[in-house]
Design brief:
alpha/beta, Beta-carbonic Anhydrase, Chain A, six-stranded mixed sheet, 9 helices, 6 strands
Length: 213
């Protein structure tokens, strides 16, 4: 494809014009980053965390993987990509907040709910991190249709990740010292709404309602 019609290169040119002119962000950002928040989001192409929260370059550190999952702490893991990102964000960048961002229509959670991933696949092994809530959803929401069960499961995934975050010693220490806040969010892309988990009420509550409301 010719360079002058490649949509990715055209997109970079727009980015370049916006951020690399005189007195634009990268004049300072080129020397280092100091994001205040780590967002753990899904690889989903429709869910772009910085765009969702209106963050400029340098404001949000982002960790993305299938179904926005965090694996439990394992000091012996040889290829701990998630742990490495968490360690860098909390210990080196010293973020003050971690947001685990789930979303509607999550293909990873759907695959887990429907046994859609081959049993011996890397995807199945990864999604097994969020397997525990499945039995709860099926047992306690049996009367609801599949779409409603899926929504419940999608909201459970960030809570599993938060539980696992607290298994990391340096995260637990920072939380207990009041230096770090953990939040579970759920983006409903059907309505354009955002919910957050309230530990006191033990449920997700509206943070930003749909436009019509």
């Amino acid at each position: 494809m010719p360079h002058d019609v490649d949509p990715l290169l055209q997109g970079f040119r727009r980015f370049q014009a916006q951020y690399f002119g005189e007195d634009t962000p990268y004049r300072e950002l080129a020397h280092g980053q100091q994001p205040g928040t780590l967002v753990i989001g899904c690889c989903e192409s429709r869910v772009h965390p910085p765009q969702l929260v209106g963050a400029a370059p340098g404001e949000v550190f982002v960790l993305r993987n299938v179904a926005n999952l965090v694996s439990p702490y394992d000091p012996d893991s040889a290829h701990a990509s998630v742990a490495a990102a968490l360690e860098f964000a909390v210990l080196s960048l010293r973020v003050q907040r971690i947001v685990v961002l789930g979303h509607s229509g999550c293909g990873g959670i759907r695959a887990l709910m429907q046994d859609g991933a081959p049993a011996d696949s890397a995807l199945a092994r990864w999604l097994a991190i969020a397997a525990p809530p499945r039995a709860f959803v099926v047992r306690h929401h049996a009367e609801r249709d599949e779409a409603a069960q899926l929504t419940v499961y999608e909201k459970a995934a960030p809570l599993v990740s938060i539980e696992h975050l607290l298994s990391y010693p340096w995260i637990l220490e920072a939380v207990e010292a009041g230096r770090l806040r953990l939040d579970g969010w759920y983006f409903d892309m059907r309505d354009g709404a955002l919910c957050g988990y309230d530990p006191k009420q033990r449920r997700f509550i509206p943070l930003v309602c749909p436009l019509e409301n």
